[in-house]
Amino acid sequence: MNGQDVTVCTAGDGWGVSELAVNAHTSCDFAFNVLGAMAEGVPSTENIRNYLPRTVNAKSPVTGKFYEMYCADNGVGIITCTGGNNAEVILQ
Fold this sequence. Notes:
By secondary structure, this protein is mostly beta strands. The protein has one helix at 28-39, and strands spanning 7-11, 19-22, 54-59, 66-73, 79-83, 87-91. The chain has a six-stranded antiparallel beta sheet, with helices on one face.
């Protein structure tokens, strides 16, 4: 996705997101928590890109800690959230 090696966690259509993927330092469970934090208060029929850029806090199921993730749209429909311990969540 976007020219890099990723693990695709899911595909869907809520919030205008068709794919959710992570880099090698990130678990799919954490990615779901990041998406959940991004989507909090946003109806699933709305495009999450309309609420970016923003910073969210998401809990890691691996460490049990909360990590700050900065999420932004790259202008061509790909959202990248970065932060934590080299974590990267990619939404398309």
